[in-house]
Amino acid sequence: MVAVGTATAVTLRGSVPGITPVLSLPLVLVPTFFVPILVADHVVIFRRLRAARGTRHDA
Q1: Pairwise pLDDT comparison (49 vs 11), residue with the higher score
Q2: Is the pTM here over 0.70, yes or no?
Q3: Cα distances (Å, whole numbers) of residue 24 to 20, 28, 30, 35
Q4: Secondary structure letter of residue 17 according to DSSP
Q5: Where residue 58 falls among pLDDT bands split at 50, 70, 90?
Q6: What is the pLDDT of residue 19?
Q7: Which stretch of DSSP H or E encloses residue 29?
Q8: Residue 31's CB: how many other CB atoms inside 10 A?
Q9: Which of 12, 25, 31, 47 is most enclosed, with most CB atoms within 10 A?
Q10: Each residue's pLDDT tens digit, 2-47
Q11: Cβ neighbourhood burial of 19 (10 Å; 0-12, 13-18, 19+)
C-alpha cells in the first residue's frame, strides 16, 4: 500500500526521474514478479497460522 501511494505521489508531482526506472529491467521484475510471490507467501503463512490455531487443544 505504501509503495502504491508513493508511486502515485511521485507520478502526480512529476518528480524526476519519477517511476521511469521501474519500467525497465531489472526493476520491472519487482512489481511484476516479486510482489505477487510476496503476497502469495503471506497468504500461505496466514493459512498455516489459522489452521494451527484451529487444531490446537488447550487443556
Answers
A1: 49
A2: no
A3: 7, 5, 11, 16
A4: S
A5: low
A6: 74
A7: helix 29-29
A8: 15
A9: 31
A10: 777 887 888 888 888 877 777 777 877 777 888 889 999 999 999 9
A11: middle
- 1 grid coordinates: 500500500
- SS3 (DSSP) at 14: coil
Amino acid in the structure at residue 18: G
Closest alpha carbon to 31 in 6, 55, 3? 3
C-alpha closest to that of 23 among 42, 39, 37, 10: 10
Q: Grid coordinates in use for 51?
A: 489452521
C-alpha span between 21 and 15 (Å, rounded)? 12
All residues at 6 or more sequence positions from 18 whose CB lies less than 8 Å from its CB, including other chains: 10, 11
What whole-number distance in Å separates Cα of residue 24 and Cα of residue 18?
Answer: 13
Separation of alpha carbons 52 and 46, rounded Å:
10
C-alpha cell at 37: 510471490
